[in-house]
Design goal:
With 288 residues, this protein is mainly alpha-helical. 80% of the residues lie in helices and 0% in strands. The protein has a domain at 205-280.
């Protein structure tokens, strides 16, 4: 495993060094998309003799593609990675857990929480059989599992899972983006229970913590901002305040994702709706 990790690092460094020499000679920068395409092509062609290294790199590349909003290619890559690992490794190998967790996270992003939950449940079951239910790998899987439960509307189960995930994440990843995102999950649970001030506090703290860890324009920051927008629009009676949150969501999404990406369209729609409600509310107040 350690040797494979070293080879992964060396291979990725070689991709950056050797990608598009013509562009480098002209001093032209390579886009992230071009680098990812170059990496994927070389993984497919140069590493066929080492399927486990190939699978690990597909796994990493899937995560990167998903972060860039290319969920279709991310899903295809993680499917290849898991298929290879299942064929090459013991059924309870930790590497399969990592890939299942990655696959579940991608399915969450694709809006397929039932499939995501099945992947997380399999990952957690493997960890339990390995006696590693309190491990860092468990923290990551359980954390993502909460999101699938919330997307499925299984709020009571999610409320219990949030507590477990929170304890694991604080143990293994204090001060991390995962720890901040636990506040988002807790806020969603509180909102669905009608505890709106508590939900607001969780979302606001998540924004502050994420901005401190990853920066104010990171894609993750749009998540609690979006929930704050919905909370103010739908439950706190302040669509004008919602507008300010949705405006930040749109700005971050435009900065981080390609034109026309689903997340941009979603937040632009949210923003337009909140602006219309705010205008109506202002007009009604003026008429009085």
């Amino acid at each position: 495993r350690a040797e494979r990790a070293t080879r992964m690092k060396d291979f990725l460094l070689s991709v950056f060094r050797e990608a598009s020499p013509q562009q480098r000679m002209r001093g032209e920068p390579l886009s992230i998309e071009e680098l990812l395409d170059a990496a994927e092509a070389r993984i497919d062609t140069e590493l066929a003799a080492d399927p486990l290294l190939q699978a690990d790199l597909w796994d990493d590349l899937a995560e990167t593609r998903a972060s860039a909003g290319d969920l279709e290619r991310a899903s295809a890559l993680i499917e290849k990675a898991i298929g290879t690992k299942r064929a090459q490794l013991d059924a309870d190998d930790l590497s399969i857990v990592e890939s299942l967790t990655n696959q579940g996270a991608i399915w969450n992003l694709e809006g397929q929480p039932a499939r995501a939950l099945a992947a997380f449940d399999e990952a957690v079951a493997i960890l339990e059989r390995r006696g590693e239910s309190g491990s860092e790998a468990a923290a990551i899987a359980v954390n993502n599992r909460v999101q699938a439960l919330l997307m499925l509307g299984r709020n009571d189960e999610a409320a219990v899972a949030v507590e477990t995930a929170h304890a694991l994440v604080l143990r293994w990843r204090p001060g991390s983006p995962d720890a901040a995102m636990q506040r988002v999950n807790a806020g969603i649970v509180a909102q669905r229970r009608g505890l709106y001030p508590e939900a607001r506090d969780h979302f606001e703290r998540a924004v502050v913590e994420l901005e401190a860890v990853v920066g104010p324009d990171h894609a993750l920051v749009r998540v609690p901002l979006g929930w704050l927008g919905l909370l103010y629009e739908d439950h706190l009676g302040d669509p004008a305040r919602a507008v300010s949150y949705f405006e930040r969501c749109v700005a971050i999404s435009r900065l981080r994702y390609p034109k026309g990406a689903a997340t941009i369209v979603k937040f632009e729609t949210d923003l337009a709706r909140a602006r219309a409600k705010s205008a109506t509310q202002t007009g009604t107040a003026s008429a009085r």
